[in-house]
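#struct-help
A.M.: can someone run this one for me? Single chain, 239 residues.
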Amino acid sequence: MELRVRDVARLLNVSEDTVYRWAREGSLPAHRVGEQFRFNRVELQEWAATHGHAVSPRLFASRDSTDALPSLHAALQRGGIYFDLEGNRREKVLAAVTKLPGIPAGVDRAVLEQLLIGRETLAPTAVGGGIALPHPRDPLVVRVDEPHVLLCFLKQPVDFRAIDGRPVRVLFTLLSPSIRMHLQMLAKLAFALHDEALVRLLGATPSRDTILERVRALEAEPAPAPGGSGDSPARRAKA
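D.P.: on it. Structure tokens below:
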């Protein structure tokens, strides 16, 4: 476990007392090492994304890395945007995702299907507001050279056990070549879903070009401060 309480407090922009309280309550994924708490970066970022807590992608970059952050716009272009995805159950929908042309060549689609379903069984990836972010729990198992994000609009809403109880209509399926990029892309998606204009577009099922243009514009804007006041779909649903 690589993160301590003070690290998590900085990443989530909350006090150390809050981190201790969340960890003791079991609402924040934590592991006890003796009398201390330790935290896993992947678990922490997934928790932040699914609970509507915006975390800057830069905070999950390697400290010694000077590489530019991966582009969500480019990842969406690689993965593609799809409409009327079939499936009346969560497992059927995820199986349909693995058959899409945006899955990179060389990926074992049967293995990917098992990984996506297994991830949902372990902990749902629905973030509220009818949106889910399915992805393999270990990004290194699915070998890809660059990040791919497949945006899918479902033919019918499907129960993904969302925290707000709403069925899911929109999926962002994420495939990444490394844990670092997985964290950054997941954080970028979480930030994007705090944008009211993009959320309205997703609810209206616009054209592919319109979605890509909004994402491109978002990435051109300065990132908001971590822990900002913007409301995610999940938080708006709870209000």
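A.M.: thanks! Residues 62-66, 224-239 have pLDDT under 50 and may be disordered.
D.P.: also worth noting: The first strand starts at residue 31 and ends at 33.
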